[in-house]
Amino acid sequence: MTRLLDRRDRPRDLRGRSRPDRGMGVLKVLVDRYIGVVAPLGTGTENVARPDPEMRLTVSRKEVVAADDDVVRLTLQAPDASVLPSWHPGAHIDVHLESGRRRQYSLCGDPADVDRYVVAVRRVPDGGGGSLEMHALEPGDTVSVRGPRNGFPFVAEGPALFVAGGIGITPLLAMMRAAELAGTDWLLVYTGRSRSAMPFVHELEQRYGARVFIRPDDEYGLPTAADLLAAAPIGGAVYCCGPTPMLESVRTGFDSTGAHALHFERFGAPPIVDGRPFEVQLASTGEVFPVSADESALDVIRRHRPDVAYSCRQGFCGTCRTRVLSGSPDHRENRLTDDERREEMLVCVSRADGRLVLDL
């Protein structure tokens, strides 16, 4: 989703003031050093899955970072404090928990801290159990980690507006740090149910001051697209991460802004578009379950088989990969190869016409 501009028009800053270019030469040196070379990004989460070695990391620090006590920041390090694989703002890691659950968490620390990964996790009591397991970790405990991977990279070109909803602030923390280092003009609009439920509020206000607009729903009401995008920079980019309703609001309202690019990452299942009902049959029992037009095969399967592994629910991690014994899947992901698609599907996003018999 891109709007082309006359590049001779100097973008104003997010408060309407004209600001000079700080020097593309200096910017390139800083960005190459801090961020690395990043391929151009389309909108949405890109296919970046690759085989990664598994690392066994130790929790070296645990901190509460929200006033309601429901968000913890965990620092993970190798037992010998050795250097970990490098990462760029927007990256996440896969955490493999002792229960067998696999979850993705955005890295929210500083890429310059080469011996540690930092993640923040909100406790969701009625979720899939992964957040409760993460909250139960204590310093000295170990977890298996793969990655980092990046489907939401920061591209330091022109001014930027960051829009976060709740725990969606996590990938944007590293982006703001990179933008500050690169001399990029930027602002953050940060929403949540209440100030007490929003992690990192105090740190953000202390570090960045007026660049940060904290907008709790209980103080301002539910935000509209106009509220979230009022500061979208002419000729710049919008980076958004948060719950699906907020993300859809930003996507819908983006075309009315003067920004030229929208980059986003969702942390929940995407809405189903053009879904049609179909059926899944479990080969192990012969049971047949209908899948309605507005739910996923994974949703239906987990109601009857809650032990089925899943993680991202967006079609990029591959955790829910399932062998198809009969039927023709409607593949709606970019994770599997053509050869893999002949025998497998990702039940979190892919669908079918008719009935699928799955090796479950």
Unreliable runs:
1-50
Give, in spatial order, the strands making up the sheet with the most strands. Answer: 4-3-6-1-2-5
SS-based class: alpha/beta
- Anisotropy-based shape: globular
How much helical structure, as a percent, in the residues?
A: 10-25%
The share of residues in extended strands comes to 25-35%
Rounded to an integer in angstroms, the radius of gyration calculated over CA atoms is: 21 Å
End-to-end distance: 39 Å
Q: In total, how many beta strands?
A: 18
Give me the strand/helix succession: HEEEEEHEEHEHEHHEHEEEHEEHEEE
Q: Summarize the main sheet.
A: 6 strands, antiparallel
* Count of discrete alpha- or pi-helical segments spanning 4 or more residues: 9
Mean pLDDT: 83
Polypeptide structure, described:
The chain is 20% helix and 27% strand. The protein is an alpha/beta fold and 360 residues long. A six-stranded antiparallel sheet has the order 4-3-6-1-2-5, covered by helices on one side. A five-stranded parallel sheet has the order 9-8-7-10-11, with helices on both faces. Strands 13-12-18-14-16 form a five-stranded mixed sheet, covered by helices on one side. It starts with 23 loop residues before the first helix and ends with a strand.
Brief summary of the model shown:
The chain is of the alpha/beta class and 360 residues long. Helix content is 20%, strand content 27%. The protein contains nine helices and 18 strands.
Question: Mind sketching the topology for me?
Answer:
Blueprint: H1 24-34, E1 55-64, E2 71-77, E3 92-96, E4 102-106, E5 117-122, H2 130-136, E6 142-149, E7 160-165, H3 169-182, E8 186-192, H4 201-208, E9 212-216, H5 217-220, H6 225-229, E10 237-242, H7 244-253, E11 261-266, E12 278-282, E13 288-291, H8 297-304, E14 321-326, E15 329-330, H9 338-341, E16 344-346, E17 351-352, E18 355-358
